Amino acid sequence: MSDAIIEVKDLTAGYEDNVILKGVSFTVQRSEIVVILGGSGCGKSTLLKHMIGLYHPPKGDVLINGKSIVHAEGEELQSILRSIGITYQSGALFGSLTLAENVRLPLEEFTDLPSDAMDLIAKMKLSLVGLEAFTGSLPSEVSGGMQKRAAIARAMALDPQVLFLDEPSAGLDPITSAELDQLILRLNDSLGITFVIVTHELPSIYTVADRVVMLDKEIQGIAEIGSPEELRDKSQHEWIREFMKREVHPA
Amino acid sequence: MAIFGHTCRMSTATEEEASYRQEGSVVHLSGRLDAEGSAQLWRTIFQRSRKKHEAVKSIDASEVTYCDGAGIALLFALSRQNKASIDKLAPEFQKLLDQFSSDSFDRPVDPPRKISAIEKLGMGGAEFGRDLYDQVVFLGRMSVVSVQTFFRPSLVRWGDVWRIFEKAGVNAVGIVGMIGFLMGLIMAFQSAIPLKQFGVDIFVINLVALAMFRELGSIMTAILLAGRSGSAFAAEIGTMKVNEELNALKTMGIDDARFLVAPRMIAGIIATPLLSIYANLMGLLGGFIVMMSFGFPFAALYRQVTANVETSDILSGLIKSVVFGVLVAGIGCLRGLQTKSGATAVGDSTTRAVVSGIVLIVITDAIFAVVFYVLNF
């Protein structure tokens, strides 16, 4: 029996009249790590933003735990949003709050935990991303990579079932990036968190991804879905095999 | 053996209960330790542990069926507080717990240093001094740019000047006109009654005209522009600084004072006197309407104004408005350039632009009042 946590059904994604993706359908299984991949401008981030309900698609639907995030409103939408965590490319931390306060914010809004419990959880989440020494720092006082890690800690504050990460490794050094991959695997393994990740980092993809959804700008949709190794070795498209090997053949 | 217990009825789909009970020195935890269950257990456990019960030596977690971040925090806090061991936690949760070492959380955190009142005063003084220094340096840079652009007007981005003039000047016509009109109207109304008691209510229009031309037209326009355009300049340049656009300008060898500040200052210098004249006329219109409603003919009021308002009255207001234009645009741009990083910093710059702008306008106006009095202007 299928245990899909996310179902993308015949989705048309874009901004106003500018259609970027058409007829996109795929499912993400519970506890799976799916990477959305493709060339620049193929609509990876756009697809992600439709999946998290930031944009209303002209056509199609996105179901999370069987509930449509496209059509949900009010309390139902809130409950869907509470079950997912999102990290944006820029981190999008609140500049007036310290890193710990940023992580505490969702706990304050959505749980009845006592203040000392929230403090401890915020510190633990930050220590997971290696920032336990910066709990009292403002986002402007830490580096871009640290801001991104703090954003991941904030996204994990409520232990969501699904984490959407938009370019999590961008701006991180290879060691921190590899540590982040291990963190993703650990959270996936221990808590069964499902991950949907937009990234270009091939080493990360081979480390974490169960499946890769490869988007193609030309066909405005999904070119192929498979494990990273399948796409690298057995893809029907030569460009995908090259892409997955990071090889460029001059025309 | 003492046995204490607590159970939380959870509203989870599986209806598992987060609960704990203490048997002697052993605490047994069971059920779903998620945010909801942990929140309820947390208060009970830690309130109880403050009441001097038997010390906890070990925590039996064999019946914990689910444990997320909140549950891990509960186990960690309980174990750390009592220096107790956690036993039989399922391996998948144990892995999560193992990521946290007590050492890193026990490390003493330096308390924030308290700053004494004298220190605060000193820091405030130093800040004021630095700001004054920045303003002088900025004035110097703008003087250099003024000389450069005077001899080579092509250095100025005139397209930007007109765009900014339109936004800061033309688009402000409505609000400046309305406020000017209402000020004239209110002044006439407020002064008409007391002056009527002495039979000199014809002089109300003198009061309105002189007050608007000499003082209120220019100062009111400048304050409106400080709130409307000075803040916009600070926010625009501040956001550019946050986005590193100013660094891009510098590394391209482009002087930000010429590129960004000069067009805004020229637009401010043109817009403020024009808007002041407009505000003066609208104020006068308001005064005329009130006086005519009291039965004074238009010709009498017109004669009264032309006979009593001298060229020096009009010029003094205009001279001030030119200076106010420089101040509003200059301080808006300076605050924008001084922006630190982050969205909050842009907000701070905008506030500082408006506050400094208004303070400088009032101080400058006071200086002008003394100078004009001494010069009998």
Distance between the termini of chain A: 45 Å
Question: In sequence order, what are the helices and strands of chain B, one letter per element?
Answer: EEEHEHEHHHHHHHHHHH
According to DSSP, the number of beta strands of chain B is 5
- Return the CATH class of the largest domain in chain A: Alpha Beta
Count of domains of chain A: 2
Would you identify the regions of chain B where 5 or more consecutive residues have pLDDT less than 50? 8-14
Give the termini separation of chain B.
98 Å
| Oligomer classification | heterodimer
Percent range for β-strand residues of chain A: 25-35%
- The beta-strand count of chain A equals 10
Q: C-alpha Rg of chain B, in Å?
A: 35 Å
- Greatest interface by residues involved: A-B, 30 and 32 residues
Judging by the overall fold, what is the CATH architecture of the largest domain in chain A? 3-Layer(aba) Sandwich
Strand order of the largest sheet of chain B: 1-2-3-4-5
Major beta sheet, strand line-up of chain A: 6-7-8-3-9-10
CATH superfamily of the largest domain in chain A: P-loop containing nucleotide triphosphate hydrolases
Helix content of chain B: over 70%
